[in-house]
């Protein structure tokens, strides 16, 4: 009597692999899933969860719209660029609306027939699209900041095509617009996708003004309530994090508390620095590499690892 071979074994011509019955394993896997209230809730939601693949495609399409000729279709003239951008935006509207609707529907407790998620999704999509010119203007200041802040950068083209910091900032600025519109989930999906690609973790709730430059970038973490001014430059391994956060009566973190640093204009933060808590880094300050900082410093400070204290000389910073 011969043993039945599994389909995979037959496909590979193997006679040494016996079929393994999986029915009991399937039951053990599915039973806790069936009893999971969160899964049951998801299964009742239509049209389902936002799609990661669709969102990533949307980001790539927007990157090509922001920088036509660099991404998407090359060799565009002035006339063809207008056609390309217009057609790309037109194609983008439906999938963007669909993902926003799915995210809103996910957290909506009203029956599908009576909820206003479609109306809210339409309004949010329109607002988001109308914000794109302002986002693009911010991104151009980021490109210039990278070029001017990095002596190794040979051109704006190099920054746009090759710098992981700019890729992370593009995703952040798009995710931040969704965060501001109070669209759940997909802002984090965008930011975490950029995190996986670049090693740079920027929460979409952070407030970052123009001319922001992340050099090298790997290991950078910028927390949800961080505020970053204009012309700020940070290097790899920098953390703008929370020192602590209050807990509610059930021991869970209280949401929405301001717990991350405020970094004013023209600050430079060198690699490995860790800045924690709702503290203020004064304008024009320099934070040295590997500094651990949990207190505010005034404008023009230079904070070194050896003392982690500001050094002020005649009102001007001094190394």
Supply database-style keywords:
single chain; serine acetyltransferase, domain 1; UDP N-Acetylglucosamine Acyltransferase, domain 1; 2 domains; five-stranded parallel β-sheet; disordered C terminus
- DSSP strand content: 5-15%
Assign the CATH topology of the largest domain: serine acetyltransferase, domain 1
CATH architecture of the largest domain: Orthogonal Bundle
Please give the count of helices.
Answer: 9
Low-pLDDT ranges: 313-319
Structural shape: globular
Tell me about this structure.
This protein is an alpha/beta fold and 319 residues long. It folds into two domains: 45-200, serine acetyltransferase, domain 1, CATH 1.10.3130.10; 219-248 and 256-319, UDP N-Acetylglucosamine Acyltransferase, domain 1, CATH 2.160.10.10. 44% of the residues lie in helices and 11% in strands. The chain contains nine helices and 16 strands. The chain has a five-stranded parallel β-sheet. The chain has a five-stranded parallel β-sheet with strand order 3-6-9-12-14. It has a four-stranded parallel β-sheet with strand order 2-5-8-11, with no helix packed on it. Helix 4 (52-66) packs antiparallel against helix 5 (78-106), helix 4 (52-66) crosses helix 9 and helix 6 (117-149) packs antiparallel against helix 8 (164-180). It is globular, with a radius of gyration of 25 Å. Mean pLDDT is 90; it is low at 313-319.
